[in-house]
Amino acid sequence: MTRILAALFVMIGVSLAQAEEQHMTIPAQPPMPEAAETGMAEVNGIAMYYALYGDAGDTPILMIHGGLAHADIWAAQVADLSADYRVIVADTRGHGRSTNDGSAYSYERLAADYLALLDHLEVDKVHLVGWSDGANIGFAISATAPERLASHFAHAGNVTLSGIDPSVETNEVFGAYVGMMGADYAKLSPTPDGFEAFLGGVATMWGTEKSGGMEALESFTVPTLIVQSEHDEAILMQHSRDIAAAIPRAGHLVLKDVSHFALFQAPDAYTQAIRSFVEAQ
């Protein structure tokens, strides 16, 4: 019995160590699958990169990446979801392959870009999967054009600056993410030497209080799932609970053993969470 208990303790220790390692690293994503279509849409004074995958399903899934990132971070999710859905990804204004016209970044402006992209693609309504800034863009669309959203899977977003964990500024994992995105920016951007200025512009948006705040959520009509990671480096758990409580009939899902970067760290579980929510609509 003593040996069995000792073995169990070892197994539990290994399991805990693996969980800790999972949320403290950011694995590289696989290459994107082959797209059915890619292009540069001329919207709101910029050229916006987009890519389409799959052709099944009545309502497409639009996936919006987080700040500093680009469409290709969704590789694992796109490979899976495109078997049963038409999937749309894009590079947000100034991110990845998309250009910026010198305009300051704001979630309202970025939301307007995505709505213009849907117009360009002649898509009336989508299931929106938003991660981090992508979730915040989704909140802006829910406020201004709810008729364009069939649902919103909102992971790691915030609606007030008080929802941000101040320790994120010195967090090593988040710092590693910024470094990864800097390297990707140099490879993808039409202005490959401009990452420092780009980072400054996005950081200014991060530090600007959002219009409407928590009260604006009370009028939302889009079916919404607020998704929070157990070990999120950037967004406070209570803030996610408050958002879910403020949006009528919203759900709240906590992803275990992962951080702000759950889509990288546990791609299969992340995709299944998306599937379960979308299929429930």
What does this structure look like?
This protein is an alpha/beta fold. The chain has one domain: Alpha/Beta hydrolase fold, catalytic domain (Rossmann fold, 3-Layer(aba) Sandwich). Helix content is 41%, strand content 17%. The chain has ten helices and eight strands. The protein has an eight-stranded mixed β-sheet with strand order 1-2-4-3-5-6-7-8, with helices on both faces. Helix 2 packs across helix 10 and helix 3 crosses helix 4. It is globular and about 40 Å long. 43% of the residues are buried.
Sum this structure up briefly:
The chain has 281 residues and is of the alpha/beta class. It contains ten helices and eight strands.
Structural features:
alpha/beta; Rossmann fold; 8-stranded mixed sheet; 10 helices; 41% helix
What is the CATH fold-level name?
Answer: Rossmann fold
Number of strands: 8
The portion of residues assigned to helices is 40-55%
The CATH class designation is Alpha Beta
CATH architecture: 3-Layer(aba) Sandwich
Uncertain stretches: 1-19
**Ends distance:** 50 Å
CATH homologous superfamily grouping: Alpha/Beta hydrolase fold, catalytic domain
Work out the strand percent: 15-25%
Work out the radius of gyration: 19 Å
What is the total domain count? Answer: 1
Mean pLDDT across every amino acid position:
93
Chain oligomer state: single chain
Structural class: alpha/beta
List the helices and strands in order. HEEEHEHEHEHHHEHEHH
Give a quick account of the main beta sheet: strands, pairing sense, barrel closure: 8 strands, mixed
The DSSP helix count reads: 10
